[in-house]
Structures are given as C-alpha cells and as structure tokens.
Design brief:
Length: about 230
C-alpha cells in the first residue's frame, strides 16, 4: 500500500509539473504575445501589424507549437495516474487531449500562411490589397480552427473531472470544478458558432470556471500529489 501511494504521488507531481508548463506556455502564447500584436482593424491594418511585429508573431507560433510537447506528456502522465480508477474514462480523457494537438498544428499553419502572404512570399501575382485580404482570411481561419481545439479542451475536462471525483486520492471538489470548467468551454464553443454576438459576454465566465478548476488541480498535483491515505 505504501509503495502504491508513493507511486501515485510521484506520478501526480510529475503531472503537476507538466501541467504547470502547459499553463505558463499557454499564458505567454495566448495572452501576453497577442497583446503585443494588434489584430483589430481592417485587413490592410492587420497585415501591416503582423509584418511590423513579425518576430513576436513568429515567437507566438513557435511557442504554441512547442507547448504541445508538455501537453502530450501531461496527457500520458494523467492517463497513467487515472487508468486504475476507470480505464475507459482514462482512455477517453487521453483521446480528447491528444486530438487537440494536430488541430493546433493545423491552426498554426494558417498563421504561417497569413504571414507569408502578407509579406508577399505567396500569391506574388496579387497586389498589396488583395494579399492583405487573403492574409486576413487565413487569420480568421486560425481563429475558427482554434475554437475547435477549445472544444476538446472542454471535452477532456469532463472525464478528468469524473476520474478525480471517483479516485478517492484527490479531493472530490476539484473534480466538480473541472467538470464545470469543461461544461463552460463547451457552452462558449456553441455560443461562438451559433450566437457569435454573445461570445464576448460569456468568455469571462468560461475563464472563471475553467481557470479555478485547472489551476486548483495543477497546484494540488504539484504540491500535494495525492492524499496520504
């Protein structure tokens, strides 16, 4: 029993470490870097913004791609931690997490294409205005593809919350918070597609529910690991 408890603690803290890396890279790539590149305005203005801030734009792409490494490691670690609780739910959690990775790569290819078009490296036969319109189109496609990833960010929290609740070695309240966070992601995704005018009003609630649950479980795994008994 002591050996099992030690093994669970070790795996839980490893998962917490990978979770921390995901959170840090996510904040840097999806909050800090976008704040440095103004993506508002006309197609021409946005194209000029990404060209004038090309290095920051490229760093954002690179960071989001590199962040998939700790994400995959986190999914593997959580699967090993939770497969003894419920094998099917653990596999479902891992599947939802893994599926978001190739979608993220496709999304970033849209950003790379937008930058190359804006700079005139692609579609050279078009004039500046037309290239700006195409670059703006690819940036919009990036946003919609990223929204699909956000759906999977919500879906994986549902089995994860269930596994936490049933585990017995992590407080059940954390499972409830994670489940609510997953539901909030899915609701925001539905509103984004069906009622885009209301998406901004719901995003703050999604951030609240999602952040509380995920940051709480990250800190618990990193600091505590699992319950002593």
């Amino acid at each position: 029993m002591e050996q099992l408890n030690y093994s669970l603690k070790k795996e839980a803290r490893l998962a917490g470490f990978f979770y921390l890396l995901c959170v840090l890279t996510g904040i840097y790539a999806m909050v800090y870097l976008p704040s440095k590149v103004d993506m508002n305005g006309s197609a021409g203005e946005v194209a000029n913004h990404i060209i004038s801030n090309e290095f920051i734009f490229r760093v954002g792409i690179l960071t989001r791609l590199v962040s998939s490494i700790p994400w995959v490691l986190l999914s593997l670690s959580l699967y090993r931690l939770m497969k003894g609780v419920n094998g099917f739910q653990a596999k479902l959690m891992f599947a939802w997490m893994a599926l978001s990775v190739p979608i993220g790569f496709i999304a970033e290819s849209m950003n790379i294409s937008a930058l190359m078009i804006a700079k005139g490296e692609l579609l050279k036969s078009l004039d500046v205005v037309q290239r700006s319109e195409y670059a703006f189109l690819f940036l919009k496609l990036h946003g919609y593809i990223t929204s699909v990833s956000e759906l999977f960010w919500g879906l994986w929290l549902l089995p994860f919350g269930f596994l936490i609740y049933k585990s017995g070695f992590i407080p059940r309240i954390l499972g409830v918070l994670l489940f609510l966070g997953g539901v909030s992601y899915i609701i925001e995704w539905v509103i984004f597609l069906a009622f885009p005018a209301y998406e901004s009003s719901i995003s703050s609630y999604r951030m609240l529910f999602g952040s509380v649950g995920e940051i709480s479980i990250m800190l618990w795994l990193l600091i505590k690991g699992v319950k002593d008994k």
